[in-house]
Amino acid sequence: MTVERRLAEVAESHDEEALVSWLEKRYGAADDLEVGIGDDAAVMRCAPGGRLALKIDQVTEGVHFKKGESPERIGYKALARSLSDLAAMGARPRTALIGLSVPRDWSLEDCQKLYLGMEPLLEKFGVSIAGGDINTGSNGLVIGTTVIGEVGQRPILRSGATPGEQIFVTGPLGGSLLGKHLDFEPRVEEGLHLERYYEVGAMMDLSDGLGIDLSRLLRASGVGAEIREEWIPISDAARVVAARDGRSAVAHALGDGEDFELLFTLHPNEALRLESDSERWFPVHRIGTILEELGCWMEHTSGQRVPLEPQGWAHRLGPGR
To answer: 227 CB contacts (<8 Å, ≥6 apart)?
Structure first.
């Protein structure tokens, strides 16, 4: 090994130590952490008999954000994606561990900005950063976020939908690449409200698109569904994109992905109660019904009923795909 390479490694290690020291001072103290940043692992206090929900997620340069995007927005998205998954379980987030593989041209300040971008979420939802891992690479920025949340009375799963239940989403869909994919707010408080006050059948977050994510919920529950085209809430951004590319706004709402709204089911009586809930501060949109018959259909505004193919984002692996 050359002297120059060894000096470069030493400089990198010093940057890492400086970042860890900064993180420890900024995030190291939290009420629910017995041991925080700075040791080989974090230790979190948990009430006897309590249950924890754990989720790991990654965001990758060129897939989830473009090269040159601000570190603050990237950091925000990385943590928000994982919190959205806890929201879909009806779990209260408690702590996070952050793994970074940063390009060699990133500075200490760049890394700090990435964490600072997470702070609005940490403060809003009472989340602590318990630790993580940092290294440098040559293949672009990758962030892995592990979040741990506290389960309430029960975890809400994808597999609990039953025939006759009504299908809801919490907000408008489509056109996320105009900005929402980086700036969305995870529906943590909405998930907690639904878990606490309603008998939710099944729930998941919409990360890859309504078309494909609904098919995943149906498959997990062993049921089918019919949705109504005119009931699908379409975002203004979806209409803008549709005007540009000629695809329908409904197609964008079904397949664009990265909406990060909640998709959930309720018994008809619970559905009526939710829609008239005076304590509910967030929008809900009924879009269809769970069926015993397997498959998924969409009823168009014309009255025609057609199969709804899964559409949305899916990662493809290997040359043999």
So the answer is: 167, 214, 287, 288, 296, 297, 298, 299, 308
